Amino acid sequence: MNGRVPAILLSLICFLTLSASHVESARTFHWYNALFVFGDSFADTGNFPKSDLSEVTRQWYQPYGCSHGFLQDPTGRFSNSYVQSDFIAKILGRSEAPQTYRATKGNNYADNLGVNFAVAGAGVFEVPRKAPTLATQIDSFKKMLEGGDVAKWRLEESAALVAISGNDYARVANMSGSESEILGFIGNVTDEIARGVARLRGLGVAKVLVNNLHPLGCTPWQARPSNYTKCNARGNMAAEFHNDGLGKRLNASDNVYLVDLNRAFTNIVDPSDDPHDVPQVAKRFEEKLKPCCNSIDPSGYCGQVDEDGGAQYTVCSNPEKHFFWDDVHPTQAGWEAVMQQLEQDIKDFLHISY
C-alpha cells in the first residue's frame, strides 16, 4: 500500500500539470467563427463574373493563377496565386479566403466560415467598372444575415477585412479643381470607409481590420515612366493624405484595427538608400517596381492578346523574385512578404497566439 503512494502522487501531479497546460492553451487559443471580406481586387477571389477577355476580366485568363495549385489555372484573383484575403484567412487558421458571394447565389450557402464580398474595381463611390461599392457589399451581407444564410451567433466571434485600395482616386487625376477640392474628395472617401466600418460593427461583427492605402506612387503603372527605377512622389503624397484622414476618422479601438499596408509595402519597394538600413524583407526581391507580367503596350494590360491570340505581354521566369505581379497587384510572394510583417500585430489585435 505504502509503496503505491508515490506512484499515485506522481500520476496526480502529471494529471494536474497536463490539465494546467490544457487550461493555459485554452486561454490563448482564440477561434473565429467566420471571416467576412469587403473591398476590391486586393481581396477579390472570384466575385467579378468571367466573360470575354478584357482589362476588367483578365483575372480569369492566363497568365493569372499560373502559380496556383496543381492545375495552375486562373481563379479570379489578381495575382499569380493568393491575394491578401487568403493570407488573412491563414492567420485565422484557414487554408484560403472564404467562399465568394457570387458562389452563394442560387445555391445553398455551404461555407459556414464566412463570405467574401470583395469585387475587383470597387470603391466607396460608383466607379466606371460598375463594381458594387463598399456600402452595396455591406447591404448584401446584411441581407444574408436577415435571410438566415449567415447565422447571427457566428458574429459573436467574427472578423472582417475592409480592403479599399484607391479605385476612387482614378477620378482625382482628371480633376481640374484646387488642392482643397482634392483634399475634400479624399475626406469624402475616408468618411465613407469609416461609415462602412461603423455599419459592420453595428451589424454585429466583432473585429474589423481596415487597410490603409499602400504607396500609390510605387505601383508599376506609376513607376513605368522612370523605367521602374523610382516611385512617383505625388502618388505617395496622396496616399499619405488618405491615411492621415482615415486614421483620424476610424478612432481605432479594441474592435477596429488599421492594417498598415503602407509601411509594409514601403519597407520592400521604397526602402532606405543606405544599404545598411535596407530591411531584410526587401532583399528577397530582385525586382521591386517592375512587374512580373508586363504589357508590351504601355496602355495595355497583363494577359492581353492580339486578334490572332498572340500574347501582348511578357511573363518573368521567377515570380518569387518580383514584388509586383502586374501594373498594380503584388505577386503571391509579394503578399506573403507584406503579411509576414503585419501578422504578429494582427494576431495581437485578434488575441491569437498560435
Report the helical percentage. 25-40%
Beta fraction of the residues? 5-15%
Main-sheet strand order equals: 2-1-3-4-5
Structural class, from secondary structure content? alpha/beta
Q: Spans of 5+ residues with little confidence (pLDDT < 50)?
A: 1-28
Query: Tell me, what's the shape?
Result: globular
**Helix segment tally:** 9
Describe the oligomeric state of these chains in a short phrase: single chain
* Mean model confidence by pLDDT: 88
- Alpha carbon gap, first and last residue: 44 Å
Backbone CA Rg: 23 Å
Question: Describe the biggest sheet?
Answer: 5 strands, parallel
The overall strand count is: 7
N-to-C SSE string, H for helix and E for strand = HEHHEHEHEHHEHEEH
Essential attributes:
9 helices; two-stranded antiparallel ribbon; 7 strands; alpha/beta; 354 residues; GDSL; hydrolase; hydrolase activity; 5-stranded parallel β-sheet
Could you walk me through the main structural features you see in this protein, from its secondary elements to its overall organization?
The chain is of the alpha/beta class. The protein contains nine helices and seven strands. The strands form two sheets. The protein has a five-stranded parallel β-sheet with strand order 2-1-3-4-5, with helices on both faces. Strand 3 (158-163), helix 5 and strand 4 form a beta-alpha-beta unit. Helix 2 (84-91) runs parallel beside helix 9 (332-350), helix 5 (179-203) crosses helix 7 (233-250) and helix 8 packs antiparallel against helix 9. Mean pLDDT is 88; it is low at 1-28.
